[in-house]
Amino acid sequence: MTEPVGGVGGSPATYTATTAVDRSDQMGKDTFLQLLVAQMRYQDPNSPTSTTEFMSQTATFTQVEKLEEIAAQNAELLALQRSLSAGALVGHSVSWTAEDGTTRTGTVSSVRFGGDGPTAVVGGTEVPLGRLSEISLPA
């Protein structure tokens, strides 16, 4: 009863967990527009779609488009907020956990902005903001 579930060819099936989720099953504005055009193209000429239903679908499409714009603006605002918060660390004393597990301290001399987000530069070492465990005013 403890046998692994067989995969193709009798070998055990293995699955790998990932940290990112690809939601290809989500409908975006392009999918919605394609469905709307297909509905218009293949509707029954003897009983066409009512104007109210068409206006409702158009309004829904507009809502989806505006929600995508709001999501993009929120992402930009979050990135700006992170940058401003990181810049405020310059001159402050910080403690962080190093790669080897030890706790280190120092004063932030500058902040670098890269693809992985801002990092504090402490004594020539780049420290990701997520590793900081304490921030205080310099002594």
Architecture overview:
- This is Flagellar hook capping FlgD N-terminal domain-containing protein.
- Pfam families: FlgD.
- Residues 1-10 have a biased composition (Gly residues).
- Residues 1-22 are annotated as: Disordered.
- InterPro entries: FlgD.
- It is a single chain.
- This protein is an alpha+beta fold.
- Among the domains are: 29-40 and 52-87; 90-136, Roll (SH3 type barrels), CATH 2.30.30.
- 36% of the residues lie in helices and 23% in strands.
- The protein contains two helices and five strands, in the order H-H-E-E-E-E-E.
- It has a five-stranded antiparallel sheet with strand order 4-3-2-1-5.
- The longest helix has 37 residues, at 51-87.
- The chain starts with 28 loop residues before the first helix and ends with a strand.
- The relative contact order is 0.09.
- The model is unreliable at 1-8 and 10-21 (pLDDT under 50).
